[in-house]
Amino acid sequence: MIAWFSIAPDDGSGSYSKHVAAALRVIRQSGLSFRLGAMGTEVEGPRPEVFAVLARCHEVLATAPGVRRTATVIKIDDRVGTESGEIERKIAAVERLT
């Protein structure tokens, strides 16, 4: 399963970099594969583990000091029979056609 997500905690600063760094620490601790993007992050692994890391990232950012509201957007590609390597496979499939 691959999940793309973006979490936007409102602490009034207008900056998200410290929050993104906190989420990446959570993801790295999980051991799941991930890829940071300019507008969101993709994480890949077994369904229960992906959902757990998404929930943990939201919790960590939503409870950060000064955060008043948190918006999380998640997009999921849950392909039966695959748990890893899909991020790279999907990109390679498109690049072969270019």
Comma- or semicolon-separated keywords:
98 residues, alpha+beta, four-stranded antiparallel sheet, 3 helices
Give me a quick take on this structure:
Helices cover 41% and strands 27% of the residues. With 98 residues, it is α+β, with helices and mostly antiparallel strands. A 4-stranded antiparallel sheet has the order 2-3-1-4, covered by helices on one side.
Notes on the structure:
This protein has 98 residues and is α+β, with helices and mostly antiparallel strands. It contains 3 helices and 4 strands. It has helices at 17-30, 47-62, 86-95, and strands spanning 2-10, 33-36, 41-44, 69-77. It has a 4-stranded antiparallel beta sheet with strand order 2-3-1-4, with helices on one face. Strand 2 (33-36) and strand 3 (41-44) form a beta hairpin. Helix 1 runs antiparallel to helix 2. The radius of gyration is 14 Å and the shape is globular. The mean pLDDT is 94.
Shape: globular
- Taken in chain order, the helices and strands follow as EHEEHEH
Number of helices: 3
Distance between the termini: 25 Å
Q: Count every beta strand, where a strand is a DSSP E run of 2 or more residues.
A: 4
Helix fraction by DSSP (H/I, runs of at least 4): 40-55%
In the predicted model, the low-confidence regions spanning at least 5 consecutive residues are none
Strand order of the largest sheet: 2-3-1-4
The class by helix and strand makeup works out as: alpha+beta
- Kindly report the average pLDDT value: 94
Rg from Cα = 14 Å
User: What amount of the residues lies in strands?
Assistant: 25-35%
- Major sheet attributes: 4 strands, antiparallel
